[in-house]
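Researcher: For the record, we're logging two predictions in this thread. I'll number them. Prediction 1 follows.
Model: Prediction 1, sequence and structure:
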Amino acid sequence: MNIDMSEFSDFEQPILAGSMAGRKIFSALVTLEYPKEHSEVCFFDFSQTDLMTQSCFRDSLLAFRDYCRVSLQNVYPVIQNANDLTLEEVNDYLVSQRDAFPACDLDGEGRVTWSGVLGVLDEKQIIALDRIANKKGELTASQLRREADGVGTTAWNNRLSALAAKGILMESQKGRAKVYKTVLEGLSVGR
């Protein structure tokens, strides 16, 4: 799913600014149809958007991510092809809140040319993300425990759950185990 963010601009220039604009975008996003059977990345395409401010991001995409984690658990929002100014605004807000959000660049063929996490993760979450990203598949907390000396299943599960709550990892159930994989292949921290 790909959503052109420039369509939400009320200005002559494609600028998304202010809390009110953010709430309007959020309201529009929750009314769209999303897949119910399988997990899907929802790309928010900024290639035609000049700027999204911190307050607009907070009340639109960040609010939508939190909504998805509760109500649309199989939808994973990702910022796509944002310019440096928008990435700086979003990153600064996320750092101030000690939060994170996935982002990427796609080429004209729809291939990921860069993927990363804006904002901040704690050191243990970075380790968990790196382990899953390097495996390029699905892993459980038990599998990670077997690979790491001295770190128990509960600790791994807490780290993985925190990353899933930020929309950085996809979480699904296989039997009694929760399995996790990165929202985008090659996902790493920072730009």
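Researcher: Logged. Prediction 2.
Model: Prediction 2, sequence and structure:
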Amino acid sequence: MKLATIPKNENARIADLLSINLSASDKKAQFDRIVMIVSKCLDVPIAYISSIGSTQQNIHASCGLSFQSSDRSTSFCGHTILQPETLIVEDTLQDSRFFDNPMVINDPKIRFYAGFPLTSLLGNGIGALCIADSIPRKLNETERLIFETIGNLLVERIRMYKLGDLQKQINISQEKLEKVNNQLNQSNQFYQQLFGQYMSEALLRTIVEDKKNTKLGGEERYATVLISDLRRFTSMSEAYSADTIVNILNIYLEKMITIIHKHEGFINEILGDGILVIFGAPNALENCAQRAIECAREMQAGLQEVNKELETKKLPSLEMGIGINSGFLVAGNIGSKKRMKYGVVGETVNIAARIEAHTIAGQILISETTYDIVKDWVEYIGKIRVKIKGITNHITIYDVSQDA
């Protein structure tokens, strides 16, 4: 007997299998009917639906079998999930994988087997629709077509289980979704839906009026990345109620977003107390590095105004560090057709985050690449050599918190 190999995507496969929950009681009646139809249509004494867990084969519906689970190592289904198409064994005694298999030697003494691989929404093999007989046999073209048609229908049914809740919501709000879809087909409204909450009105108008400058999809851009983060905010969150923290954040973000939009920055992410801003994507901007530094300085000044407002409300003051880096990055719509967002990825973003981590309260640190662009315009008040995680050589970062 030859054991089936473990798929390379085993962890993802098991996760998919568990999330679908084929053993749920509401699925059994449907599976029983499918097994009965397969058995009658193809005139086979054994038919069953099984899944392959970490160590067990689980039988979810069957006729002609007296057990509900077995060792994965002795299962035919373990081999089937490795196949991109139907596995057919016309005579198990003539197949080195199965001739001494316990299910061949002992009851139910399988001599013929056919298994159709069942795959999840993500394409992971989770189980099989199986038929078997105690005598060798072949499937003619019509029988194979019937078997595979039923198998495909079962795959679609299993995938629909995963989409069941979503489908209910779609049915309830179908009319509303159709209106939204019509709006998204109009490019101006599409851009407003995608970008409107994250950039200034002036930048949005530029993108809408000149669509050629912004591809829907990934593209390489030279841009400047600004990342800000509040100091000691985690400990503050533990000391105050959730309502208080949300109130503080709303006051802070209202001021910061207004400043960022003023300088034509694109807010790519707001993660709690941290803000990721891009200058130069999705739309090209002149003087991106200078804009980012001017924006950062106004953000630090604006934070003082925020703290005055917080003081009047008897709320704790805030402190912020800002890191800036310039370079090439990949920008575009990330995700899937069902759920996507405009995002940026790459070493340029990572280095900006590492630089921000070196800041103290009130500080603005910029990378060498950014300083090289603005050195004729800005003077630094200090510089240090640091080792950045993921970068082999040390780099110099410059403090431009204020004019020298």
